[in-house]
Predict the structure.
Amino acid sequence: MKKSSILLFILLVTGIMQAQDRTQPKPGNAPVVNIKKPQTFVLPNGLKVMIVENHKLPRVTYNLALDNAPFAEGNKKGADDLCSSLLGNGSKNIPKDAFNEEIDFLGASIDFSSHGAYASSLSKYANRILELMADGSLNPIFTQVEFDKEKAKLSENLKAEEKSVPSIANRVTDALAFGKNHPAGEYVSEETLKNVTLADVQANYNNYFVPENAYLVIIGDIKYTNIKPIVEKLFGKWKKSSTPKLTYAAPINVPFTQINFVDVPNAVQSEISLVNTVNLKMSDPDFFPAIIATNILGGDFNSYLNMNLREKHGWTYGASAAIGSGKYVSKLKSASAVRNVVTDSAVVEFIKEIKKIRTEKVSDEVLKNVKAGYIGRFVMQVEKPQAVAQYALNIQTEGLPANFYENYIKAINVVTAEEVMTAANKYFLLDNTRIVIAGKGADVIAGLETLKIPIFFFDKYGNPVEKPNYK
């Protein structure tokens, strides 16, 4: 027998044996998660500091987070975005180029935004990087030249998104779900951007970049006793101040299922989103059932939506579902981009899968697999400093028990099929859902009208319009 024939035979036999041995491995015991508790102190100005010593690697991370309530900007929407862009361009003490060059020379990274700052470096540069982060955060320099540059960039981005169907769909979905006057529903437009001045950016910083709701989480190869006096020195001069206290009307879901359609003539696919607002807190007893229910519906590759729209029908590259949680109102959103010709059929299948999770108990096998996948992703995050910092923040800002994340896996594992269905009925409000579709009306409206679901028409900014003449 020739060598090539022998090799082919061996490969064939090996492949058959491997195929026969592809049994699903049995999951082992749930891993034990041990997240170190931070040592804490509070500065007189209100800044809460949390320090977690971790000497496994010679690295340190700093996470400065401002836990401010969301706020609307009205006809000057864009000031907060520009504030984020301008922060980090040096400081009143160090010019922009020298500031950035030193960070690069130290092999570190520092990111600034209007909601805080994040820095990472080798622990031997820990003190200097903290000095730079504090300087850039507390002594920013806002110049007209940099303001004009960043404003022009933001304007160009808006123009680039003008014909983007996903961008239009996301904008209209939030505007309709929350209302345009709500922080989660307003959007930056050319009109609002033109109204923003450098003084507005400075005012935004002065009003909201304050220590009242600020947290500094430090994780890594540092000593509490060494870093504490440095933090006190650098951030103790941060002037004590409070943010404006604003309130907004709670968004109201629609009284009946309806299609909200946006005509985008250049669309080659339809962007479909089924959305309703929710008020799910991490401290709620049904938090974990709601999370698992969402993963079963569309948070996993083997989810109901993905297996239906992608694997069974081949209409899309992927379908998903996500639920927001926290102190403020959020949304449940199921979404996918599908070919124009199957837009109406996809809507039917979305509704079918949401009805299924609300009325049929999930199978033991699916529930077990979704839990295993979710736990696996959680465990992969546990060792990352960013995740540990976020967990420490969540415990403080969400009012969670100190052992919340130690018990996280246990809480996931005890979720039952009955609890999943109960959570789905509570949060997946199918009878109060907006089906927001951005697509080519000439191709898809005729099919959608056969579904006998009321259709309302909107422009690409969420304003109601008459039904276009698609002829």
About this structure: Residues 121 and 129 are 7 Å apart (CA to CA).
